[in-house]
Amino acid sequence: MKTQKEEFKPQQIGEENTWLVTQAFKDYSSLIERLTALKKELSNCLETDFDIDNFIDFLKHDPEKWVYKKFISINDVNFPGLSTEKIIELKMLDVKGVPALLAKYNDFKNVLDKVIESGFFYPLSKLYSEKTKEFNLPVEFHADCDAYFSKFTQTPEQNEILEKFERLCEVLNELDELNIIRSKNGPDEIKMLTDFIDISKNRVDAPFVVTADLFRQHRTKTYLLKWKPESKKNIADFFE
């Protein structure tokens, strides 16, 4: 009977890049502050509260032209013989608050450029809560951010290799607790393993083995029982 092939599941390799995760959190927190201020300024400029869809539409377009078009639509502005585009082109409108709005937009754009440089994109619409009517970082943001700045296996073979190295790390951490291998000394501490593990130079296929002098090394001597000399033997012992 054939067994069903187990579905491959990518596994995280090591830990996420905490520096990049922290930086992304700071950048998006700053972005939320700019979005909040910009949305408020837009409402003040046109004296209208806009939902998130309209606000996102505003962000997708030239901000000044978008505001003028909305102003024309909201106030039913009409100049016979002139299209909306021509009215805007001829600068026939005087909309108070546009300079302040554009200043807030530029603040937002500067922070957005930093976010884009990081490579981690989280939809702006998902940063807005319809329930609270505010921008914030949802739980899903943190999970997606951690995943983006992490590395994952791509094949079953990589999963197998990763599992072996994770077991190796577990053993090293146990030795660290015994103060035999000391992680506090940094990466070079790995070289200390040569005091406890041996490999024959006379065999190409020789495996790694525990050295016979395991408990005669500097860091393991405390585990060595006090040596007691055996009674002397003589040739007669061979003929017992």
Tell me what you see in this structure.
With 240 residues, this protein is mainly α. The chain has two domains: 12-151, no CATH class; 156-223, no CATH class. The protein is 45% helix and 5% strand. It contains seven helices and six strands. It has helices at 18-46, 52-60, 63-74, 84-89, 98-118, 139-148, 156-177, and strands at 12-13, 128-129, 134-135, 151-152, 197-198, 209-210. The strands form three sheets. It has a two-stranded antiparallel ribbon. Strands 2-3 form a two-stranded antiparallel ribbon. Strands 5-6 form a two-stranded antiparallel sheet. A hairpin with a 4-residue loop joins strand 2 and strand 3. Helix 1 (18-46) packs antiparallel against helix 5 (98-118). The longest helix is centred in the N-terminal third of the chain and has 29 residues, at 18-46. The two termini are 62 Å apart.
